[in-house]
């Protein structure tokens, strides 16, 4: 009896991987073995960097808050220390948005905290 292989499923699997490799350069986009490795590595980076992005945004928020605080003669660490001591529940994302888009609002928060 001849060997039976499910060519439909294996072809579909390869097709799915090659579709993910669309836009890659050279053999990475159309040679199965090369494309498979490139796609696997790309998906690994995508998974890792979705988590890394959160830390990068936090860092950006801290820079923006620090810049806004320095305009008023206060350091970031002093501001955040007093904010936590007053038990104000404002996160860095909101503070950074205030600092960028509503400087008067940020100044009001800073004055409230620094009293």
Describe the structure.
The chain is rod-shaped and about 85 Å long. It is built from five helices and no strands. The protein has a single domain, classed as Ribosomal protein L20, C-terminal domain (c-terminal domain of poly(a) binding protein), CATH 1.10.1900.20. The longest helix has 40 residues, at 32-71. The protein has helices at residues 7-20, 32-71, 76-85, 92-101, 103-114. Helix 1 (7-20) runs parallel beside helix 2, helix 2 crosses helix 4 and helix 4 packs across helix 5 (103-114). By secondary structure, the chain is mostly helical.
**Which radius of gyration do the C-alpha atoms yield?**
26 Å
User: N- to C-terminal separation?
Assistant: 88 Å
Secondary-structure element series: HHHHH
Q: Beta-strand percentage? A: under 5%
| Unreliable segments of 5+ consecutive residues | none
CATH first level: Mainly Alpha
What portion of residues is helical? over 70%
Shape: rod-shaped
The name CATH uses for the topology is c-terminal domain of poly(a) binding protein
């Amino acid at each position: 009896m001849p060997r039976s292989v499910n060519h439909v499923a294996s072809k579909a699997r390869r097709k799915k991987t090659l579709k993910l490799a669309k836009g890659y350069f050279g053999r990475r986009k159309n040679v199965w073995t090369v494309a498979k490795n490139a796609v696997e590595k790309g998906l690994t980076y995508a998974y890792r960097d979705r988590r890394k992005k959160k830390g990068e945004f936090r860092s950006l928020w801290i820079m923006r808050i620090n810049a806004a605080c320095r305009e008023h003669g206060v350091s970031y660490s002093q501001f955040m220390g007093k904010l936590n001591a007053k038990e104000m529940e404002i996160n860095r994302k909101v503070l950074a948005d205030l600092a960028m888009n509503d400087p008067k609002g940020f100044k009001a928060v800073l004055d409230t905290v620094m009293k």
